[in-house]
Structures are given as structure tokens and as C-alpha cells.
Design brief:
Shape: globular
Number of helices: 14
CATH topology of the largest domain: Nucleotidyltransferase, domain 5
Helix content: 40-55%
Largest sheet: 6 strands, mixed
Radius of gyration: 22 Å
Length: 379
């Protein structure tokens, strides 16, 4: 079978075509500025038409058997990749106030896919699905309960696809070594907005991100953990409104703020880079704090696994972090395994969608579910 993977973000639409008989994609590419219809810039529909043409060219005039769409937010409702039906679209509509920047573009993408790829089932792969089962003491904020219930505010994990794949990789390795103990895993996703999750086997117990990816570890341009009073001070002292504050916290902070210029994780962790030592040390310290919290939540540590686009930087962070963790503690170096999961995000999305698709194929009412998935369309 052939699968089309769509990975949208605010600036580009990434896509890949996979065949079930090989790991590498038949093609992997991106379309820039797909949400704009200004001048020569492509809009969403023309972007999908281009992808449709590419699919036919690659697969000898066949449409894909299934489309897997990466979705940033699924709230409390979605705990695994999900086949799109009218009921699912209704649930997304209810979730819109919780993720007004993510859900509406996803809804538009789904409906445009219906127009360009009629009769092709769509499976949504949610970044929040794996971490949504956090225990209450971890996902709750100490705020008025009625306010949190009304708004749906709670702690989420926003790199759940990476964490799930990385932890499955650890579990597979342990089974191969015939280990019976359930491993305590510190999963560190090195994306521009990094995230640390503590997972016991496949059960998440701690994550650094909050109600949004802004909380937690500083990113390339994001502030990370922040005293809420600072936001009040920005408003009262600098007379900045929501848009200005959001820009400062999401585009002008993090490593950029510490280094005084735009930098990446790779730049900051170059061995000869002395100029950015402050940014590097602050970032390492945040990883150390997060690791300590994760170990406390799990009651131990067996494996640290890195994933994400900067996974190679994990080899530097991992050695430093392991040394810091064993220094002055009862932990032994030989007890902490370092691993690096280097699979591409498109391959991860394809694998997780295929798991659900395989389960659906064993269902007695598969055809009814596929029909329900393909019978709605909105121009």
C-alpha cells in the first residue's frame, strides 16, 4: 500500500510518500508559504494539487491508499492516531477555543484533502496523544478548578510523536536483551522548542511543556519556564499588549535572547564556540533540572534517549548530563544507557498511522468506518 504523509506548520507543508514494502520514502519534499494566496505564492489547494500530481507520478497514476496528517493538538479527546469521521470533525470544532492557532488550519486542510483526494481515508496523528495520560499531580495547575475545566487548561506534551517512537525503540531493545524490568526512560526531544519527558515503559509521568510548548526548556527563540509576574511587568512597564508580549516570548527569547543573535542548537554546542557559552550553560542547566524532576517522578533512571532534528547534539548533552547525574549520587554510569533515535518525523508519523490502520483492517466494520471517513466534503 501507499501512504501520503502531510506535516503542516505555519510556514510550510511537508509531505512524503511511503510504500509499505520499504522504510525510506519514495519522495520527501516541502512546499513553502502554502497558507498564502498572495501573488505567486501557492495556496493550500494548489499545494495539494501539486502533491496529488506528484503522487500519481510516483505511484503510476494511483492515489494513495491512506493519508496521515500530523496534528499539533488533540486535547483530552484523542489518545491515539484517529481515523477522520464527521464525529471527529465535530470534536475538533469543540476543541478550537483551546487551540485557535492549530485547529482551524487543520480543519481546512482536512476538507481540502477531501476535495483533492476523494475517497482516500485520513488518519490524524496527534502530537499531544502520547502524553495526555499524565497523572493529575503532573498535568494540573494550582488554579481555580472551574476555570481550568471551562478553558481546558492543563499540561500537555507537544512532541509526543517523538517521545512515543523513542520509548518504543527502548522497549524493543530491552525485549531483545530479554530484560524483564520496565525501564525508566528520560526522553529528550531536541527540536527548536525542546522537551523532556519521563516515561516508565510507555507510561508518561512528567513532561516539561505546559498548556503550550512555551513552558519548560528554553528554545532557540522561546523563553521556556517563566515567572508570570514578568508578563505583568512587560505590560505595566513596557506598555506591551498581548501581541508584543507574545512576539517577545516566542521569537526574541531563548537562545536568541541569551546569545544576542539568532542561533541554533548546533551552533551553540560547537566545541570551539566560546561566545555562546552562557546560552549553552543555561540550556544545559535546564536539562539537568528537568532530568532531576523526571528521575524523581519515575523513581529511577535506566535510559536517556534523544530524538528530534538536533539528535546529534544529544551526544554532547548526553555525556555531560550522565556525568552530572552520577556525580554525588547513588546512580552508576553503567546503569544509565544513552541512546539516539534518528528516525525522521515523517517516518514516525507513517509508522504510528499504520499501527492504527492495521488495527482498523482487523475490524469487522472496517468498510463502514472507511465509508464514514470519506463521505463528507466541504468546498
Amino acid at each position: 500500500m501507499k501512504m501520503l504523509v502531510l506535516r503542516p506548520d505555519s510556514r510550510m507543508l511537508g509531505y512524503s510518500i511511503f510504500s509499505s514494502d520499504q522504510r525510506d520514502p519514495l519522495i520527501m519534499s516541502t512546499i513553502q508559504d502554502y497558507q498564502s494566496s498572495n501573488g505567486v505564492k501557492t495556496n493550500l489547494r494548489s499545494a495539494l494539487q501539486k502533491i496529488h500530481y506528484t503522487c500519481q507520478y510516483i505511484t503510476a497514476n494511483r492515489l494513495p491508499d491512506m493519508i496521515a496528517v500530523h496534528a499539533a493538538f488533540g486535547g483530552n479527546d484523542f489518545h491515539q492516531p484517529t481515523l477522520v469521521t464527521q464525529e471527529v470533525l465535530h470534536s475538533l470544532e469543540i476543541l478550537t477555543p483551546q487551540a485557535p492557532l492549530h485547529i482551524p488550519p487543520l480543519q481546512v486542510l482536512i476538507h481540502q484533502c477531501r476535495l483533492i483526494f476523494p475517497d482516500v481515508p485520513i488518519i490524524l496523528v496527534f502530537d499531544t496523544a502520547f502524553i495526555v495520560s499524565l497523572p493529575p499531580q503532573e498535568h494540573l495547575y494550582a488554579l481555580d478548578s472551574s476555570f481550568m475545566k471551562t478553558t481546558g487548561l492543563r499540561r500537555y506534551g507537544f512532541h509526543g510523536t517523538y517521545h512515543e517512537a523513542a520509548c518504543d525503540h527502548v522497549m524493543l531493545s530491552w525485549r531483545g536483551k530479554k530484560k524483564t524490568k520496565v525501564p525508566c526512560i528520560l526522553s529528550i526531544c531536541l527540536e527548536p522548542r525542546p522537551e523532556v519527558a519521563a516515561v516508565v515503559g510507555r507510561r508518561p509521568v512528567m513532561v516539561t511543556s505546559g498548556a503550550t510548548p512555551l513552558e519548560g526548556i528554553p528554545g532557540e527563540t522561546t523563553c521556556g519556564e517563566l515567572d508570570p509576574g514578568i508578563v505583568v511587568a512587560m505590560n505595566q512597564t513596557l506598555h506591551e499588549g498581548p501581541e508584543e508580549i507574545n512576539l517577545r516570548l516566542t521569537r526574541e527569547s531563548g537562545l536568541r535572547g541569551l546569545a544576542g543573535e539568532g542561533v541554533t542548537f548546533e551552533t551553540v554546542f560547537q566545541p570551539t564556540n566560546v561566545a555562546h557559552s552562557l546560552a549553552r550553560n543555561v540550556l544545559l542547566y535546564h536539562f539537568l533540572r528537568a532530568a532531576g524532576a523526571g528521575i524523581a517522578a519515575m523513581g529511577g533512571l535506566d535510559t536517556i534517549i534523544f530524538s528530534g532534528r538536533y539528535v546529534k547534539v544529544g551526544k554532547i548533552i548526553g555525556l555531560w548530563l550522565r556525568q552530572k547525574l552520577i556525580s554525588g549520587s547513588t546512580l552508576d554510569k553503567t546503569q544509565i544507557e544513552l541512546k539516539y533515535y534518528q528516525e525522521s518525523p515523517d517516518r514516525i508519523i507513517a509508522d504510528q498511522a499504520m499501527t492504527v490502520w492495521s488495527a482498523l483492517q482487523k475490524s469487522d466494520n472496517l468498510q463502514n468506518k472507511i465509508t464514514a471517513s470519506c463521505t463528507f466534503c466541504e468546498a
